[in-house]
Predict the structure.
Amino acid sequence: MAIENHQAVEYERRNHGLLTAFVVNALSDGLGYSVTGECPGCGAHIRQEMTFGLMGTKGTRRRRVPQPGPRTVICDCMRTHPEKPPEFFDQGCGAQWQVVLP
């Protein structure tokens, strides 16, 4: 279990660039990835799933295969951050960054 290091920093939309400290693992169904690490803005433990394919479809449609390369992750700690606009209630501290999918 990860130790929570969350800090109540002021909300700031900021791109932290490409980060390599995040752990990226394939999901068991092969249709996406789990991205885990510490938010560079507020220190919260972040775990997000990036899934690929057409949800709710049946028949002859084929699911997309995840392509390697960078993907953007946005902090979703859902904690209170001073100066956070009310329309972003479902987001975190405003930090975003990129991780590379294998």
Remarks:
- The first strand starts at residue 14 and ends at 18.
- The mean pLDDT is 80.
